[in-house]
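Annex B. Sample input.
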Amino acid sequence: MEKTPQGTSVGVDDPYAVVERCDFLTDDGRCRYAAEYGHNDPEFARARHADDLRCPAADPEGEWAWVDCPKFRATDTARTCRRCGLDERRLAGEETRPLLEEHHLEYADDDRAELTHEITVSLCRWCHAKVHGSWARVDDDVEPDPEALATAEGRRSAERAEFAFESAADRYEDE
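Annex B, continued. Sample output.
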């Protein structure tokens, strides 16, 4: 299993196996990086423009895999834990710790100082701790931790209380 630079598990054997698509891939299979950010890497942009901005990694029979693309990035913005399915519940106006955290799957090689690619998934903080602290895997089919369910339910109750109707007459009756 892949490891972080500190030696903890990232929960997958191959970070690219959990990737659904690149952040720069458009719905019609074109490379948005070359179209919008080509000035950052003119050589890459010229090569993509010569091929009508086609992404060579998007096609399963293409000449590239995700790992081959120098501009590849896959950041999961899901609001559900990828491992247990716990939904994020944020309380507006309150400084509470989020239920979901960004879990990095790709780290710098031993001989390189920078990340090769950015690959992240959303995990609840309980699954995140289990993945880093043990042999738990990102793709395990598990139920949410009881403490996670209790925290999420507490936030859900707070949401419902906030949306409950209370007339001004009732609210200020004691004053």
